[in-house]
TrEMBL record:
Record's keyword terms, sorted: Signal
Protein name listed in UniProt: F-box domain-containing protein
Species per Swiss-Prot/TrEMBL record: Mycena maculata
Signal peptide region: 1-17
Length: 190
C-alpha cells in the first residue's frame, strides 16, 4: 500500500479502524516524513509487524529523526530500498528496535545491489555480520500484484523469502551477506 500525500487525510481515519500489520509506504508522502508524527497520529500503526519504506530521507539524516520506528512494539520486519543515504540508520534500527527479526535492503537492479554492497564495505559497519540482515535484488520490485497474491494466500512476497534467508543464516547454512540473489522473476526471467 502506498499513500499519496493528497489522500492521507482521508486514508488515516480509515486505517485507524483496521488491524494494520503490514505497510508499504512512500515515506515522504506521510507528513513530510516524521515517524513520531506517524506513530502518534494513528494508534493502529502500533500493530505493524512489517514496514517497507519505499523511499528514504536526505543524506546524513540522524537516527533521532527515525527513532519513532523503535516505538512500534510489534515491529519485527523492516525494509528499505536502495539505501545509499540510509546506511547510518541500519545499525541503529537493529540496535534500538527490540523485536526486529529481519532487516532487508531490497534493490531493484544488480547495479543498485553492487552500489549498496560497496557502501556497506566503505562504511566498515558490522551490519553484515548480523544474521537478521538480508540484502537482495527483488526482480519484481514495483509489482504490487505480488503483495496482493500473498495477501490472498496464493503466493510469496519478499518477506517470506527474507525470513527463509535469515533462518538459513541463523542455522549456519549460509554465512555470506550481503549475498547476491534474485527474488522471484516474472515469466520472462527479468
Amino acid at each position: 500500500m502506498i499513500f499519496p500525500l493528497l489522500v492521507m487525510k482521508i486514508i488515516l481515519p480509515l486505517l485507524e479502524r483496521l488491524p494494520l500489520q503490514r505497510l508499504a509506504v512512500s515515506w515522504k508522502d506521510i507528513y513530510s516524513g516524521s515517524l513520531p508524527k506517524l506513530h502518534d497520529s494513528c494508534a493502529k500503526f502500533t500493530q505493524l509487524t512489517h514496514l517497507e519504506i519505499r523511499d528514504w530521507r536526505e543524506p546524513g539524516d540522524p537516527w533521532t529523526g527515525w527513532s519513532g520506528i523503535a516505538r512500534f512494539p510489534r515491529l519485527t520486519h523492516l525494509c528499505f530500498h536502495d539505501v545509499e543515504t540510509m546506511m547510518p540508520l541500519l545499525g541503529c534500527a537493529l540496535k534500538f528496535c527490540p523485536h526486529l527479526k529481519v532487516l532487508v535492503i531490497s534493490c531493484a537492479r544488480r547495479l543498485h545491489f553492487d552500489l549498496a554492497q560497496r557502501d556497506l564495505e566503505i562504511s566498515g559497519t558490522e551490519l553484515t555480520a548480523d544474521a537478521r540482515f538480508v540484502m537482495f535484488v527483488w526482480a519484481r520490485y514495483f509489482y504490487d500484484d505480488d503483495w496482493e497474491a500473498y495477501a490472498r494466500g496464493s503466493g510469496e512476497d519478499f518477506w517470506v523469502v527474507a525470513d527463509r534467508h535469515v533462518a538459513k543464516r541463523q542455522a549456519g547454512e549460509t554465512t555470506v551477506s550481503p549475498e547476491y540473489f534474485i527474488c522471484p522473476t516474472d515469466e520472462n526471467g527479468s
